[in-house]
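Action item from last meeting closed. Structure (95 res):
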């Protein structure tokens, strides 16, 4: 029982870290506000590789390379990209 709690807590902390990394990625694309932005720039640059590493961990966390799970992830990414590009194109054509 305690092993399950520790594993669940560590996975929850990885999700929290992934959320923080996503926020850092958003902040790096905002225009610099002042000197604080230059000081925090190296910290914000850590967001992208950390986000990708945590996502890779969750993709291969079961210890084997399963083609079914990879296909599911690719389908999710394609759906997400289609939604993002359709929203972008709609705003592009409106302006």
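Sequence:
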């Amino acid at each position: 029982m305690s092993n399950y709690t520790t594993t669940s807590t560590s996975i929850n902390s990885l999700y929290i870290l992934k959320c923080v990394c996503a926020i850092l990625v958003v902040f790096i694309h905002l225009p610099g506000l002042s000197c604080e932005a230059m000081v925090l720039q190296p910290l914000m640059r850590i967001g992208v590789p950390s986000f990708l590493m945590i996502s890779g961990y969750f993709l291969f966390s079961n210890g084997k390379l399963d083609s079914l799970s990879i296909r599911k992830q690719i389908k999710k990414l394609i759906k997400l990209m289609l939604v993002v590009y359709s929203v972008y194109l709609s705003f592009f054509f409106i302006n």
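Note appended to the action item: The chain is about 85% helix and 0% strand.
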